[in-house]
Every structure is written in structure tokens, then in C-alpha cells.
Write a structure and sequence with these properties.
It comes from Leucobacter soli. The protein is an alpha+beta fold and about 60 residues long. It has one domain (about 5-60). It contains 1 helix and 3 strands; from the N terminus they run E-H-E-E. It has one helix spanning about 20-30; strands spanning about 5-15, 40, 55. A 3-stranded antiparallel beta sheet has the order 2-1-3. The mean pLDDT is about 90.
Amino acid sequence: MCATCHVYVDRYAGADPPEVGEDEDEMLDCTSEDRLPNSRLGCQLFAGPEVARIEVTLPESQI
């Protein structure tokens, strides 16, 4: 993991998002933008059949 896919999750509908793992938690401390309570690494969010919708905001440095 590299933290370049840092996103802010605005909505994760249909199921609970996966728990933040230890590696992801450590990487979120190294992002170029502030870590917020809804910060996640996009590569760790999975959209299976039970997930109706995922909405995210990209941090300014990721645009």
C-alpha cells in the first residue's frame, strides 16, 4: 500500500464498509492531506453485490 488512493468516504450504501486494517491505518497516517474520520484508501474499498453505492470525495492533492 502507498496511500496515493486516499479518499474521503461520503456514502457507503447497502452494506458496512470493510474494517480499517492495521496496514491501512498506518498508511492513512502518511497521507498528503489531513486524515479525517471518513478517510480510507480507495484500494481497500470493495464493491460487491451487497454494496449499492459508494460515494467519495478526492482530497485536493489527489486531483
